[in-house]
Amino acid sequence: MYWRALVGIAGAGLLVALLAPTIGLGSDYSFILYRWLGLSRRGLFLASSLALAALIAPRVIRPFLPALRRLYLAARSIVIFLPPLHSLYLAFLAIIFVPYYFSFSFERQPWAMISLVVIPIGLAIGGWTAKLKARAELAQTWAVSVWSVLFAFFASDIFLRARGSIQETHVQRILRERLRDPTALPAVLPRVLVGDSVPPGSFALKDSAGLEFVPLADVSRSLTVYCKEAGDYTIYRSDEKGYNNPEGIWSKPADIAVIGDSYVHGACVPSGSDYVSALRQMFPASLNLGRGGNGPLSELAILSEYAVAARPRLVLWLYVANDFRDLEAERKSPILMEYLQSEDTRRLAARTDEIDGVVRSYLETELRRQDQSLAPSWPAAFLTRLTSARALESLTFPEVRNQVLRPHYGGHDAEVTPNDFEYPDHDWPLLKRILETAQRRVRSWGGELVFVLVPFEDGRGFLDPDIYAPAGNYRDHLMQISRELGMPHYDLNDDFRQLRNPNLYLADLHSYYGHANAAGYAVWADATVRLISRICETGNKRVLSCHPD
Which domains does the chain have, with CATH numbers? Predict the structure, then answer.
């Protein structure tokens, strides 16, 4: 009797773990189970959906079986008099899907090939074969089955398009936060502002004297709504200069300043769970100067405007594999290029109040503009999409195609892809010049610049440069530049490689992996503490006190 109870409890726990991802509970234990079973990321959700269907289908469908049979017979009676339109439609879809599939050099996995190429072509051929060779009853059954699948995909595409209006957007969340805190604003992302401007690189604001500048920090002491991945939005109160730090940190001498992109900024973990916050537990005088989407030029600008005001003894420059893409956008900005070509600055850190006023005015104007363009309530939006020309576009299943082939593109910061390691426009001399300039400026106040390579990853998880050759070559080139500059350097890939399952330390978004999670940032911080210890052991104690608090 007891063993039956134990088996029942274990079976219930296993069922909950299997079904958790389907109903949105996706805990780490569920994902560990699926990985142990050898299922892929998308296989995980297929299996959990099938488990849910197997659980509820018999009881739900049984009362409707007579009606479903009558519907099936009616559909058969219709297709008897029709040519094999489903085969023509499938051939049409294949003509669309095949070029779409081969237009992407990333994420072309076998299952995507099967979904977008093999199945449409196979079903089209099967339809014609059934029509010409098979018995009439089999051909009719085949046609009804194919049309049922096509209508299901059509409904799925309509739902996926309408779902965007159901979910709370970034702007809507900011507006909701402003109801309780009027200071709430979006995070300022310099590279995004520059890259999204028309023409690219032309973005600039003007101060009270009419001098153009690119904002490099949030509005100070504002409630900042940043990004969202596995949980809620990352929301923090910006410090007195506009960065993700505790209030008052600028009034104390800084030991460490960390410069980088979204990984440094705090994407996309709760406030206080980011990399610099974890590092601050050992070195309290650590300054976060990260901005989401930053590339090397934006980071040089921040170093020149803000790090120089703090004069930290150690500056950690965190480099991400997609930084060359960001650099391509940044180099089109004359203002950002000035930070490389000249020692002059805009003195933004010393003019926080003035700059705040200009940036706040710009952000609030943009919020009002975007608020007016927001979609109506979701029922209205659904009906609008259903009755508009966009519904006709759903006949080619664009949303389903995007989910199949590229589920993780978009968001506040472009994901790293294997193509970043083979990017055709890698301007290594420009990157070396930027790092050399940064190193010279840090040494001008007696500090030291350390180059830190962020673990490589793509949407499928950690990408080991010792296994993926293009990533290894990319890393080796970066390390060579650091050695040529006499710059201390460190590769965090070495620490991630030693983890039993590195992907457990990344934000798990069910269909892909995002930034590091809180545990991943803690691993970074521990590795950084060891790095600082090694710097101290080499006798470079002039850089840091070497005694974490």
Answer: 1-78 (no CATH), 82-167+388-410 (no CATH), 172-373+424-537 (3.40.50.1110)
